[in-house]
Amino acid sequence: MWKLTKVAAVAAALAAAVAAHAGEVEVLHYWTSGGEAKSAAELKKMMQAKGHTWRDFAVAGGGGDSAMTVLKSRVISGNPPSAAQVKGPAIQEWASEGVLGNMDALAKSEKWDEALPKVVADVMKYKGNYVAAPVNVHRVNWIWASSDALKKAGVAAMPKTWDEFFAAADKLKAAGLIPVAHGGQNWQDFTTFESVVLGVGGPKFYQDALVKLDDKALTSDTMKKSLETFRRIKTYTDPGAPGRDWNLATAMLIQGKAGFQLMGDWAKGEFIAAGKAPGKDFMCAAAPGTANAFTFNVDSFILFKLKDAAAQKAQSDLASAIMSPGFQEVFNLNKGSIPVRAGQSMDKFDDCAKASAKDFADTAKSGGLVPSVAHGMAIAPATEGAIKDAVSQFWNDDKVSVADAMKKIATAAKTK
Ligand code: BGC
């Protein structure tokens, strides 16, 4: 009996210790599709295990445009959440407003500088101080395929070039299938567009045109060829594409109705959540012509300055959980991405993820590693928005000529 009392006393003391530090984390994110929600739930579980309360601030909308609008209004009204899913140069913009906290003490004690590739660590810092924590590395330049659809159409292998892609797309069409599942937001158009630019022009051209926004590259013959290829892809999409969410496009592959989707590896999260197996039910390959390149997209959370001590502790525990090897593994197994920590074991991951990890390391050495523009990793948000609109206008309106589109994109690139 005395033993039980003692156990109960210890448990009560422990609970009190947890409670003394227990706080609330309000986390803004846009992970609302099947695979995304399963991944986000892992973070919630970890925070709850540490005794904190998780307040879910999910704003639906792939790519996060709606979430960013909501976040701005919350911060302007002086009531920021603890953390928000923000990435790339937008991190610097938020930090320059003076609203983010300094996570250096935690980063130092957990050796984040050693755990993260420098290209990632630099993006997480503002003026040398950590203001954000990264969760993963998504690869954007993927092409996904439905094994059933390919089999029905007699397509034997994943296309390695754009010519092979169009030949396969013709076979899918002839078999009465939708060759390309596409959706209807400008970030989906640009996800396809940047893979085409990378495949047609290679990594150096991609950097010049879409990252450095060099006028000569933007108005070059290679850009012309990219736009022509991009427009040709549209002829293989179905009339239901406008307005469609990306995960519903993935569902068309899962159901065997469509052959291909050009999308980042969050699409794999959807296949996995639907119980499908890579290499069997669905296939992954680098987008045509991009085998030696890697467009990276690192999801991360910016951490806001908070006043309340318990909330600060909860926020620090959140950042620590995000960076922990255990979380990096379980989250990324669900999300379709790979861990961002260097040297993390890939044993439990599938072949698509293993290929991604290898290509991430190889392209970092070869120069083929480039930031995704479609996913906010490369250029200032205002410029990115203007270019995306010009590209989507071209995609949506067949009356806009390639020459006009080139001019419009080059003009949009000057937006500050
Ligand atoms: C994000 C992913 C997300 C996808 C669709 C991308 O920009 O990086 O985490 O799954 O958008 O919403």
Automatic annotation (TrEMBL):
Gene3D superfamilies given in the database record: Periplasmic binding protein-like II (3.40.190.10)
Keywords, alphabetical: Signal, Transport
Signal peptide: 1-22
Compartments reported by the entry: Periplasm
Organism: Acidovorax temperans
Function per UniProt: Part of a binding-protein-dependent transport system for a sugar.
Protein name in UniProt: Probable sugar-binding periplasmic protein
Family note: Belongs to the bacterial solute-binding protein 1 family.
GO CC term (a single one): periplasmic space
